[in-house]
Amino acid sequence: MQQGSYAPPPAHSPPLHHPVPQHVSTVPMMRSPPPPQSQGGSNYGSPYGQMGGPAQQSGGGGPFAPAFGGFVNDQTAQMGFQVGQKAVMAGQEYMEQSINRYVSIPALKHYFNVSTPYVLRKILLVLFPWRHKPWSREQRPSSTAPDPSAPNTAYSYYFLPPRDDLNSPDMYIPVMAFVTYILLSTLLAGLRGAFHPEVMGLTATAAFAVVAVEILGLKFGTYILSISNDSQLLDLVAYSGYKFVGVIVTLVVAEILNRGKGTGGWVGWTVFTYTFLANAFFLLRSLKYVLLPDSSSTPAGGMQTVDRAQRNRRTQFLFLYSYVVQFVFMWVLSRQDSATATVVGIKT
Amino acid sequence: MMLFGLGNLFYVSILLVNAVAVLSEDRFLARIGWGNAPTEPSFGGSSDAASVKGKMINLISSVRTLMRIPLIVINTLVIVYELVLG
């Protein structure tokens, strides 16, 4: 990289006067190049250039040696510094690329673009979805206002972020509800006198496994039914996290009303049934736009038309997912605390 | 009552993939009509690959082809682990 002006090597043999460079210890591996160094390459402006000279003044041997030695070390230090910088930058770029390949960061940022009124209204919507009327997500042509937060999506229309659109899925509520669920079930176990440090890990693992199983099942279903949509996986992850809100409400209300008897009894079952129905209705309405893409919105082509039987199957799959599967998983999650309590109680 | 954790999830998925991978092509799958042999295209029915059955057949043959070598390694590791520590 320093192909500019090479000077002939100095007349006196370099190894004799080559000082032992003890002060430049930043990049030891770059000390090996032999003396033919470029003299025109000192325009890098590196702070090492000023460091090398005066430190070498004291340790030099002959009249030429201090300048020469300082110059050599200056060059090697600069080169090493640059090589190191480039290596680090290349490594960072590689890491970013390989992270972006699996989880695209801009797409994730889109999901966390929330505001406080949105969060409140969304939680109310999850808990009381019956009167909500327009369920479709708002779209905006990307030509007029290119979205900086999701530049690599292949939409001709892009969806508004959750801050502006109530029907848009976000990741904030699911993530917070996930964490809150873990802490809450641990707290309930503690109130019951059955706290154990393992409870937290067990609950977290079970909740994570529930989400993983759900995502796997959904991906399998979309593969079988050949539903294709852009950025679908993150939408599904977001939607599968909303049930933690209902589970948390069930746990809290049942705990208060039942006075620490767990989520059994008719109170617990009533609350659970209500939250389950609300969540299922919410998912049914919301996922309709993910799993049942409108044939009218897709570009008019002969291959895009979904025949009637296929659409029927998709509707059945949607219903099965949002009622049956959600029932099983919400029941599992809301029974979790008493289950861990019994496990720990047996163990201790 | 503690239902499932990630370890059990791992075991379940390995067992399921094993169950798909041991299906014999000519002894079982061809007999029930799920063989990988290309079915003759009927009139206008070129959308065989889009149907549910076509997808399942495609998935099974893909798993059988792709996961054979990794499954040997994974199964060996799990067996050794279970023998030593289980």
From TrEMBL, chain A:
It is a multi-pass membrane protein. The chain crosses the membrane at residues 172-195, 201-221, 233-254, 266-284, 317-334. Residues 1-67 are annotated as: Disordered. Coiled coil: none annotated. Keywords: Endoplasmic reticulum, Golgi apparatus, Membrane, Protein transport, Transmembrane, Transmembrane helix, Transport. It holds the Pfam family YIF1. GO terms for biological process: endoplasmic reticulum to Golgi vesicle-mediated transport; protein transport. GO terms for cellular component: COPII-coated ER to Golgi transport vesicle; endoplasmic reticulum membrane; endoplasmic reticulum-Golgi intermediate compartment; Golgi membrane. This is Protein YIF1. It is found in: Endoplasmic reticulum membrane; Golgi apparatus membrane. Residues 7-18 have a biased composition (Pro residues). The keyword Iron-sulfur does not apply. Belongs to the YIF1 family. InterPro entries: Yif1_fam. Its main location: endoplasmic reticulum. Has a role in transport between endoplasmic reticulum and Golgi. Residues 38-57 have a biased composition (Low complexity). The keyword Protein transport applies.
TrEMBL record, chain B:
It is found in: Membrane. The chain crosses the membrane at residues 6-24, 65-84. It comes from Letharia columbiana. Belongs to the YOS1 family. The lineage of its organism: Eukaryota, Fungi, Dikarya, Ascomycota, Pezizomycotina. It holds the Pfam family Yos1. This is Yos1-like protein. It comes from the Eukaryota. GO terms for biological process: endoplasmic reticulum to Golgi vesicle-mediated transport; protein transport. Signal peptide: none annotated. GO terms for cellular component: COPII-coated ER to Golgi transport vesicle; endoplasmic reticulum membrane; Golgi membrane.
